[in-house]
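Sat 14:20. Reprocessing the chain from the morning session after the first attempt stalled halfway. Input below, unchanged.
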Amino acid sequence: QQSYIRLFELKPNIEEAKWEYCKLLILLKEWDRASQILDGLIEIDPNNIEYLILAGGVELKKQRYTVAVKYFGQVYEASPAGQYSSEAITGLIEAFKGLKNYKSAYLLLEQLFQREKVNQSLLAELATFSQNLGYLDKARFYYSTLVNNFAVDAKIVHNTALVYDYPGFEKEAAFYWEKYLAYDENYLKAHQ
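Finished this time. Tokens:
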């Protein structure tokens, strides 16, 4: 770190050295100093996707969610199908969650689901968001996909049974309540 500081004293305009120093600061979790350097780098090259994606990540760490949305949004807007697009969407999701803008986060989660291979944590997050936002048909799809394709805990099976526990879904609800009994055989609702 000392050699980078000395280099900046001698030649403060070396962009590549600033970039390397910034990455070092991030490894050291020195978010404020990294943010200052990234601001300078972005001023020099405002369309550099690597600068923008890293700046978004640093702003997430600093809990400056609005600024993180700006950077991740620029990355995604510049190249919606590019190398960093999934990372940009993931950053936007986290920033929107930090801003408590759950509907925007949910829409991006669905977009991420369409792009990536099915994974358990993404399905679980989508299922929970769908249930919490009242999108029961989507919650049913995500929960049942999760329960039928992955080893899940009791809470997931319980929530799956709950989203099916509505008129017209009696058969499915009974199936998932029966599965839940394997976790909690004394749960009264599952016996009904």
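The mean pLDDT is 91.
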